[in-house]
């Protein structure tokens, strides 16, 4: 890709709800592209639709980006650059000049139509648009005399400013992912640029802010592709076509079965989160789970998202953020939608947990352990993690290892029945003496002591191990027995073993 000016990209979400995981992917691709080319990554909040703003959504966006570790160089919540403010509502007064410039040059017009007028338009023809075929039958500055328009403006009669889309012209532009895109203007309508309350629509604000903030590339979701021809015309009519950014429209994230776009409502319904962080709807108090609270590592989420619609080639799948930056190119983004794979997401997380240090995972599970089991010595918790880390898919899986933080008091009859064969031949005193006779208390020597005890007591090694496992764990699964004995220590291990033996 030929880069003629400094790369500046922006992630511009609207705080009308929590940030969807697809939005995080869009932010990630912008971030990777900017860092790859030593450019700037900006967070801009597009809050022109004030009626749809949701309390807490803006802060949620900021916290989500911080959690996954893709911090903008500048923007809301991340510090001002030379183009602050970064909330469009705070830039409201700057947009009118551009809308009026378009009117003066004949590319836009005042529209005074009431809701009733627009309803009649749609009643006459359900498919009718406000465009070149209908605008001359409506109330606007194209059908009213200049004197009437002046009177209406002086009387502060409500109006909007619409873009005047020409009839039957081809709008041609290049998309960095899809190639040449051609749209006939007959398929477009005269979009509102400035609303009656003076607030710009997304289209005007987006183009003006991208121009003022010197955005070089617009990398956004596929849902904005139909709006791109309108934006191309705005750049042309405002005289900015020479600095128009390059466009790249990302493929959709699809449901696991490929049947439609993955939506905000699909997450908990399908059994996996679709939000980076837990979200509680301020209106309904309905709670949706998040990747963080479900026990995912942010690095794993980033790695997983990067591969949903992009692939560097080759067989390597585990990439650090720095490696993703080095490998990322827009040319390797796929054209088609990417199916979300919840099991693959877990696989990534499992791999990252295994690669983390025991101390790192211990710090992450410590709040969970403390809440459920009370205060646990940090060195013991690190040892626990070392024993079970390879078995953990999610950080929350620590909850399944409660037996490492407290002994089973009453054993299930079904489990006792599986090991009852040792009842007549197991000697707890001899077993204790065998362990305490060890001069070096480590896993290898404990394992040898088990085998020697089994041979001396005429117990099958397998039967002994089953009994010890049920004694220490409460069931027939878990880490290696000798490792558990070393972890618990001789005294705690013997308490559990004697307790189980007495219940046989």
Amount of beta strand: 5-15%
Instruction: Calculate Rg over CA atoms.
Output: 32 Å
Question: For this structure, what is the CATH homologous superfamily of the largest domain?
Answer: HUPs
Q: Indicate how many domains the architecture comprises.
A: 3
CATH fold category name of the largest domain? Rossmann fold
The CATH class of the largest domain, by name, is Alpha Beta
In CATH, the architecture of the largest domain is 3-Layer(aba) Sandwich
Can you describe this structure?
- The protein has 504 residues and is mainly α.
- It folds into 3 domains: 1-75 and 251-355, 3-Layer(aba) Sandwich (Rossmann fold), CATH 3.40.50.620; 92-203, Glutamyl-tRNA Synthetase, domain 3; 413-503, Arc Repressor Mutant, subunit A, CATH 1.10.10.
- It contains 19 helices and 14 strands.
- The chain has helices spanning 21-36, 57-68, 92-104, 115-124, 146-154, 202-212, 228-237, 267-270, 298-306, 321-327, 342-355, 358-373, 378-388, 413-418, 428-436, 443-456, 461-473, 481-488, 490-503; strands at 8-11, 40-43, 74-75, 108-111, 160-163, 170-175, 179-184, 192-194, 217-221, 246-250, 253-254, 279-280, 287-288, 338-339.
- The strands form 6 sheets. Strands 1-2-3 form a 3-stranded parallel sheet. Strands 4-5-8 form a 3-stranded antiparallel sheet.
- Helix 9 packs across helix 11 (342-355).
- The longest helix has 16 residues, at 21-36.
- It starts with 7 loop residues before the first strand and ends with a helix.
